[in-house]
Structure formats: structure tokens, C-alpha cells
From TrEMBL:
Pfam family for this entry, one: SelR
Keywords associated with the record: Metal-binding, Oxidoreductase, Zinc
A molecular function (GO) term: peptide-methionine (R)-S-oxide reductase activity
Gene name per UniProt: msrB
Top-level taxon: Bacteria
UniProt feature, compositional bias: Polar residues: 1-12
Protein name stated in the entry: peptide-methionine (R)-S-oxide reductase
Class of this enzyme: oxidoreductase
Any one GO biological process: protein repair
Catalytic activity from the UniProt record: L-methionyl-[protein] + [thioredoxin]-disulfide + H2O = L-methionyl-(R)-S-oxide-[protein] + [thioredoxin]-dithiol
Cofactor dependency: Zn(2+)
Originating species: Rhodococcus wratislaviensis NBRC 100605
Length: 145
């Protein structure tokens, strides 16, 4: 694994809302992914194929997570990045749901679920990592427009 912060259970989120506050702030679809670790269907998210330059923020708290310069086409059905914007932007934690071992990616600020990170898949990226992120977990702030 890379240098990202590990195991969010060891530190409290910087943005902490009650369950009912999250439900008020987010749509039911956003809540299901961001707060209940759901997954949007592949190839339906608004940022899957976008080439817009900009900064991707957490839809729940607004923290900067990824930049378009680290986004690449993985053809997996979700936006893919090879590195977060900052080493503290995301937290990685083990996910053994669905009977397999994966590494979950959560927002470093509010600990909302973003997706998963995979390694060693052979993508021609500098990190050999694929941060597979739900579009519904993100908002894009375009630059230079």
C-alpha cells in the first residue's frame, strides 16, 4: 500500500455528523453510497468518462480528494485515479465484505465511503494503483473555465 493514512478507526473524522444530519444533507442515493458503503452501478456515474480538468471533492463534506491530472481511463465503469490529491485526503481500510479481501477508500475528513483501491493490475500509471471511486461520492470543480 502507498503512504495514505491507514485505519480510520484510530482517528475521529474532522467532520462528524449524526446519522440523521447526514440523511438531511445527502440524497437517499448519496447516503446509500457515502454513509452505508454502497456501490453505484457501473457506467452510469456522471464522472466515469469525463475529461474535464479540475479538482474532485467529497460530495459529503467538500474536502479535496483527487485531481483530473491523476484520473485515467480504466474501462471498469467507475472513475479511476492513480493517486489522491494529498496523502491525507483519503484513508484506506481493510474490507472483507462480499467474501473477499479489498481495500476500502474513505474520505480522510468525514470518513464517507468513496470506493476501493486495487494494486498490481498492470495499468500504465506511475503508482500501479487504481482508486475505483463512485461518481456519486464526488463533485467536480472545473479549472480554467
Amino acid at each position: 500500500m502507498s503512504s495514505q493514512q491507514q485505519d480510520p478507526t484510530q482517528s475521529a473524522p474532522k467532520v462528524a455528523l449524526s446519522d440523521s444530519e447526514w440523511r438531511e444533507k445527502l440524497t437517499p442515493e448519496e447516503y446509500a453510497v457515502l454513509r452505508q458503503a454502497g456501490t453505484e452501478r457501473p457506467f452510469v456515474g456522471e464522472y466515469t468518462d469525463t475529461k474535464t480538468e479540475g479538482v474532485y471533492h467529497c460530495r459529503a463534506c467538500g474536502a479535496e480528494l483527487f485531481r483530473s491530472t491523476e484520473k485515467f481511463e480504466s474501462h471498469c465503469g467507475w472513475p479511476s485515479f492513480f493517486d489522491p490529491a494529498d496523502s491525507d485526503a483519503v484513508v484506506l481500510r481493510e474490507d472483507t465484505s462480499l467474501g473477499m479481501r479489498r481495500v476500502e477508500v474513505v474520505c480522510g475528513t468525514c470518513h464517507s465511503h468513496l470506493g476501493h483501491v486495487f494494486e498490481g493490475e498492470g495499468y500504465p500509471t506511475p503508482t500501479d494503483q487504481r482508486y475505483c471511486i463512485n461518481s456519486i461520492s464526488l463533485t467536480l470543480e472545473p479549472t480554467g473555465e
